[in-house]
Amino acid sequence: MINMSHGLQSRQGVPQSLTIAVIGDIHEQWEMEDNEALEHLGVDLALFVGDFGNESLEVVGRIAQLRIPYAAILGNHDAWYTASEWGRKKSPYDHRLEDRVQAQLDLLGEAHVGFGKRDFPQLGVSVVGSRPFSWGGQDWKNDRFYRERYGIENFRQSAQCIMAAAQGTACETVIFLAHNGPLGLGDRAEDICGRDWQPLGGDFGDPDLAEAIAHTQTIGKKIPLVTFGHMHHHLRHTKARLRTPIQKRHHTVYLNAASVPRIRTRTPLFNPSQSDRLSNFSLVRLENQQVCQVSLIWADCEGNIDEQIPLYEAPSLADVQASSMS
């Protein structure tokens, strides 16, 4: 179980331990009670991986009222009626009168880190955003949208933007926040970014994010965590298992936080007429700027944890020493 108590301060005033809440794909399931739950959990930082809804200004507006440090990136559903010709044809509003993509960006302000970064010097970390509105995969999609919004026309240019943001961070420790994960984490349907629809299998990660991570490692930045969503834990081709939600490569933990749907109800045993709304969050514990624990939790609006599912625990020093001697 993740210990929610805060660690001691280092000599530079940076906490030796941090607890981060990662919020997976929301898909309209966010009320003010979720703000309350997140604030009651007492985390140091919240990270949102996107897909708030189909250009849902209401959901983004609620999140913008959070009273704790946070960063966010917008997902493919957050430009559902804007990014493609197909989406614009289905749009319920007039694009000549409204720009709901820009309205979401305005609501989030500097908290939105897509193609950018947000420094948290008081926590000793900087959050770098990948390409916003990603659909995943190795085919460049929505070229007109990216060209008009960002002046970007391919994966290489996208990677350069992400790398520039990482190079400009104020902190040595960098967390990457993305909607879809990076290429290179496996090509089975059950893998963390694996394709779970026909034709089955294949790595659906983002190549520009993978390139940016590799470059950032070469310039001496520490990357304890890369977190994202998009590829839901519940698989399309089988109910026999869930998607692999976490992976570690070298010193970096990769977390897919897309536990969808993220709301369920609990019926109290002695009061069956009343049911509680439970929200899921992924809690990541960092000690000395390294991930030591990750859990998926279900909590009520007062931050009481109903269920905690361990996903990762770093090996102890004794375990490492024993392994090296065997």
From TrEMBL:
Organism annotation: Spirulina subsalsa FACHB-351
PANTHER family annotated for this entry?
CALCINEURIN-LIKE METALLO-PHOSPHOESTERASE SUPERFAMILY PROTEIN (PTHR35769)
Q: What is this protein called?
A: TIGR04168 family protein
InterPro entries for the chain? Calcineurin-like_PHP, DevT-like, Metallo-depent_PP-like
Superkingdom field:
Bacteria
The residues covered by the Calcineurin-like phosphoesterase domain are 19-233
